[in-house]
Structure formats: structure tokens, C-alpha cells
Amino acid sequence: MDISTTKKDESGNVLKPESRYSDWGVFGLGYRPGCSSIVSTFRLGTSNRKLLLERIKKVCNHELGHNFGLPHCTSSETCVLRDAAETIKTVDNVDDTLCNICKAKI
Ligand SMILES: [Zn+2]
Ligand SMILES: [Zn+2]
Questions:
Q1: What is the pTM assigned to this prediction?
Q2: Which of 30, 61, 71, 104 has its CB 3.0 to 4.6 Å from that of 37, i.e. a possible disulfide?
């Protein structure tokens, strides 16, 4: 099943163009901080089972990072908490763990 969110700016207005951002499909979403998150395989689709499991692991670790209160990482190119919202390529390019700077925060 696909999952989506509505992307808003700091003042709560839906980003433009609204048709694109009002129903923005995501790999996963996590409360920051919080104790729940959701991950969907819908957009992680690949017939390569190993790759799929790797992607799921990364998205789970990413959302868990948010649950621990961490924002998106700007310190490391390969941190699992890099903003992966836009493309599957970002997911494939990061490690499956937090960088040392993020780790030090939790
Ligand atoms: Zn995120
Ligand atoms: Zn990081």
C-alpha cells in the first residue's frame, strides 16, 4: 500500500504546486520525537530481494532516528538520516547506520 503526506512550509501552507505536494508519496514517516513510525515497501519496489531488504532496513533506521528526535543530517553524505524523501537513489547511496555526529546526539 502506498503512504503519503502533505508537504507544508513553516507557516503551514501547502507547498506549491499543490497538486504535487498535497499528496506526496513517501517511503516512510516517523514522529520527531515520538515512538511510532511507518514504512511502506510500495515505493521501494524492486525484484531484487536483497536490495529490497537493504532499503527497508535503511528507511526503518532513518525513521527511528526521527523517533529519537534527530532532524535530517547535513553532516555526512552517507548518513542514513540524510533527507531521502526525494529519490530512491538517495536511499541506495547512504549507509544503513547513523554517522558519528548523529550517533553522538542520542
Ligand atoms: Zn526523514
Ligand atoms: Zn548524520
A1: 0.85
A2: 30
